Amino acid sequence: MEKIVINGGAPLRGEVEISGFKNAALPIIYACVLVRDKCIIENVPNVLDINRSFEILRGMGATIKTIDRTTVEIDCTNVVSGTSDYSLVRRLRGSYYLLGAEFGRFGKARVAYPGGCDFGVRPIDQHIKGFKALGGEVITDGGYIEISTKIGRAKGTNIFFDMVTVGATLNVMLAAVLGEGTTIIENAAREPHIVDCANFLNSCGAKISGAGSDIIKIRGVSELHGCRYAIIPDMIEAGSFMVAAAATRGDVTVTNVIPKHLESITAKLEEVGVSVEEFDDSIRVSVDGPLRPTNVKTLPYPGFPTDMHPQMCAFLTTVQGVSFINESIYDNRFKYVQELKRMNAAVKVEGRMVTIEGGVTLSAAPLVAVDLRGGIAVIIAALTCSGQSEVTDIHLIERGYDDLVGKLKQLGADIKKVYVPDPVALKKAN
Ligand code: EPU
């Protein structure tokens, strides 16, 4: 076990390079199951959810070679359907892409129910509705979801999702790409990672059009070939560093980004009074004037991302006046609030609305990373206040942030990772 120790209070300054996007890398890695050939994937982030996904695929018969720190070669030719490890699959949300990928390649699938951060109920009814529409018979049994078909492949159809869902849009895309005929997804999610996964599949010979709009058309093809593909930069990692720069009143340039993907975050920071300069593939964030409170509503892309809500709340605790965050995607993404309160933050939650009375001086405290983005939010809060804070359960942060401690150190933060003996293991050893 490890914890992060922070002596906060100093502004972050300098340049930080953003890694590949975890939420794009996940569907792309599982999409390799559809390809009986080698795929070389570049700009892969070194994070737990990705490394666990490699472990899952290796366990199913894939060969995965590391070419360099951010490039892998994935060959899923020999993958066997229905053999994914139950306990690994249930440790992450993104493993649900295996359902669409197995269904797409083999016309059947057997995968454990996925895990992921706990934000209240996270149903997968729209994924199942999509699989059924594609001709799958779906049953859930003993913690597994099983799909079978009479014709041995998905059958093209029209699907209208009841809500905008990233996961179900991608899963139907994966299932339909080798299907018979044409599939049209309506009310599709428009996130940059949907476009990235479609671009990857098209580089392998798929025929997908419309990704990035709310209508996606997938014309089934009989096989896919290998390709070389670079994953887009992580807009949430970039947004987290931008907000950390603002919260510490620093001056940070995030590099290797696509500024267009960050527009909702940039606009909100500017509204608060933060200075944001956009360049071709970098953004500089600094604070040189007074800041004002704001209202934020999380929405599907291109709206303000729910995955930036806790970080924004941590920042707004430092801005004088009353701000509001309305969480419209998840019922319960508020566990991080109890941690901010330990630091004296004046934050309250009513229904899905967070009210922040900003400007109260935060104090360092022992803190817990309650989930991935809640974890980075408390790190940001700890960076803003003088004194020593400690953050435990950091494996949850490491699910999605590549070398966080190294990158923050590079920006001048006094931060380190410290080994903590596991009390349960110690007890057993004694
Ligand atoms: N929903 C349903 N039924 C479904 C699918 C979704 O009711 O079948 C609901 C969800 O409960 C949620 C909303 O629809 O209220 C949106 O869910 P979506 O399917 O878009 O989310 P997801 O695919 O489960 C991905 C990311 C999340 C990110 C959301 C929204 C991955 C592995 N996860 O989740 O990322 O919050 O999209 O953008 O890509 C994170 O990285 O911290 C994270 C939680």
Question: If you had to describe this structure to a student in words, what would you say it looks like?
Answer:
- This protein is α+β, with helices and mostly antiparallel strands.
- It folds into 2 domains: 2-19 and 233-426, Alpha-beta prism (UDP-n-acetylglucosamine1-carboxyvinyl-transferase, Chain); 22-230, Enolpyruvate transferase domain (UDP-n-acetylglucosamine1-carboxyvinyl-transferase, Chain, Alpha-beta prism), CATH 3.65.10.
- The chain is built from 15 helices and 23 strands.
- The chain has helices spanning 22-31, 48-59, 86-89, 97-106, 125-133, 166-176, 192-203, 235-247, 263-272, 309-316, 335-342, 372-384, 395-398, 404-410, 423-429, and strands spanning 2-8, 13-17, 38-42, 63-68, 71-75, 109-112, 137-141, 144-148, 158-160, 182-186, 207-209, 215-219, 228-230, 251-255, 275-278, 282-286, 295-297, 321-326, 346-350, 353-358, 366-368, 387-392, 414-419.
- The strands form 6 sheets. It has a 4-stranded mixed sheet with strand order 21-22-1-23, covered by helices on one side.
- Helix 8 runs parallel beside helix 12.
- The two termini are 18 Å apart.
- Uridine-diphosphate-2(N-acetylglucosaminyl) butyric acid (EPU) binds next to helix 1, helix 5, helix 6 and helix 12.
